[in-house]
Structure formats: C-alpha cells, structure tokens
Description:
Helix content: 40-55%
Distance between the termini: 34 Å
GO molecular function: ATP binding; ATP hydrolysis activity; phosphate transmembrane transporter activity
Number of domains: 1
Protein name: ABC-type phosphate transport system ATPase component
Oligomer: single chain
CATH superfamily: P-loop containing nucleotide triphosphate hydrolases
Number of helices: 13
Largest sheet: 6 strands, mixed
CATH class: Alpha Beta
Number of strands: 10
Strand content: 15-25%
Radius of gyration: 22 Å
CATH architecture: 3-Layer(aba) Sandwich
Bound molecules: adenosine-5'-diphosphate, magnesium ion
Pfam family, one: ABC_tran
GO cellular component, one term: membrane
Domain ABC transporter: 38-291
Amino acid sequence: MNDIELNIEGNNETAERKRNEEVKDEWINYDVDGDPKISVSNLNVWYGEERAIKDISIDIPKKSVTAIIGPSGCGKSTFLRCINRMNDRIRNAKIDGSIRFDGTEIYQNNLNLVELRRKVGMVFQNPNPFPKSIRDNVLYAPRKHGYIEKNFLEKILGRTKQKEKNILEKSLKQAALWDEVKNRLDDNALGLSGGQQQRLCIARCLAVDPEVILMDEPASSLDPIATSKIEDLIVSLSNNYTVIVVTHNMQQAARISDQTAVFLTGGELVEYDETTKIFENPESKRVEDYITGRFG
Ligand SMILES: Nc1ncnc2c1ncn2[C@@H]1O[C@H](COP(=O)(O)OP(=O)(O)O)[C@@H](O)[C@H]1O
Ligand SMILES: [Mg+2]
C-alpha cells in the first residue's frame, strides 16, 4: 500500500473494516469439542419490522457453561427464548433459521413442545415461584407431566409418596437448597428469601430431568451473597447439564463460564470463544471496547 493512501483516513477505515469482515467468521467459528448440544444456524428474529437477532450461528457444547453477554437490547433474551421456542408465544415475532438439539431440528412442524420445554428448562431474572408450598413448587411439573404414577395400587402401597419424596429431595439437593428447607417443605415458597426462591426455581426446573438449562440474568435481582451461591450452583450444574446463562455482569461471566458469546447492538454475535480468550485477548475491537467499559 502506498503512503498517500495510508494517510487518507477514509481509506484506512475502509481497509480496517474489510480486514475485520474477513476474520470475523473465524471469531465466531469456535470449534467445540465433540458434538454440540445445540447448534444454531443463521438465526434471525424480527419483532414486526424490527430485527432483534441478526444471522446468528453458534454451536453450544454439552455439559459446560456458555455465557451470553452484551448491552441491553442486543437480543440476549430473544436468543435464549428461541432455544425452547418460547418466542412462539409472542405474536409479532418471526423466526427464521435453524436450531438443532442433539442433531434434531427444533423448528419443525409437529415438534412436541412440551417435551422440548421439559428438556430445555428456563430460569428467569426475577424468581417466580408459585404461591404454593416449597414441595408443591418442585413437584408441580412432575405431577402435571405424569412423572408420578397415579395408579390405584401404587397409591395404596404408598409408592406415589415415595416417588415424590425422591424427586423433591434430589431436586432440592441439586439446587443446593435442601439443607435450608428440609424442615419446612410445606411452608409457602413466597416466604423464602430472594436467593432461596431463585434456587427453588432452579430445583423446579431440575425436577423434570432437563438436559439444557437456560438462565436469563438469574442473579441480577439478588444481593452479593445470594449471587455467589447461584454462581457456585451454575458451575456445579454444568457437570451434568448444559447451561446457557445470559448476564450483563462481565465479572460473573468471567468467573463461571467456559465459553462466552458477545452480542452487540443490532442483535449480532460479534465474537465467541473460550471465556479466558474473550476477556484477556479478544480479536474484535468492538468486543475489547465493550469489555473494558468504553462502550455499552
Ligand atoms: N415481545 C417483544 N415485542 C417487540 N419487541 C421486542 C419484544 N421483546 C424484545 N423486543 C425488542 O427486541 C430487541 C432485543 O430485546 P431483548 O432480547 O430483550 O434484548 P436483551 O435481553 O439483550 O436486553 C430490543 O430492541 C427489544 O426492544
Ligand atoms: Mg434480556
């Protein structure tokens, strides 16, 4: 390149942009070990005329924590809701592209949505336990979906109760809540602290044996101690489950996740890589600016 060209700012910017575009595919084609649990290809989502997700492709590995970070309004929640087809319920949402779960397309007609949402559980920002007992919260979905047999003989022999007890204890233990509530299982869940309520919501999700757990800013309404418990829990859950967690807290993403996807304004996936790489040495200038707090 000759000197004159280099000195012209406009051309410089163009060259920079071109270089960025050329390497961009590499930043988001992070190769996961083994078959991905979830494979998203060319996902686009619109609300009416407005596009919230722009052509996102990403593979999510099993049994690990994937963090989704990015500024408010960049499509993180929308993306999460695509994975268990919750956006289907939003009337003006239009979704285009493919999401495969263990290789099976979830955007196909006749997919069993109840089964999908059992396998892909979701935990929201504000804990939302039912105004029922702790026990009834955890057992709500197993009872509803026929996990607990109700035939006459089992009822007489007391097996239904035993089965309920097992699911209740196992789920609460997995959610690191058992010790705190084992003596008050029939108390109303709304009497629990915020952090306990959130762990109860996680237990409720675990009670139907999910494979993937989607968490949308699960600790952002909690105090630091409750947050730290949820963070520890997320890490331990990833031994058995595929966890995808949206957070706008970058330190949290850095602490708990194995890989991080950075979404930026416009619903773009700008960079996806191992978490240490994203935080220590991102490829994209925009990601670096976002992480160092210069933007977003
Ligand atoms: N139900 C909806 N109807 C219309 N627009 C929506 C709806 N949900 C989200 N949006 C818009 O889509 C964009 C992405 O939103 P969202 O996924 O909630 O972002 P984030 O979770 O990153 O803050 C925003 O511009 C938001 O206003
Ligand atoms: Mg959100």
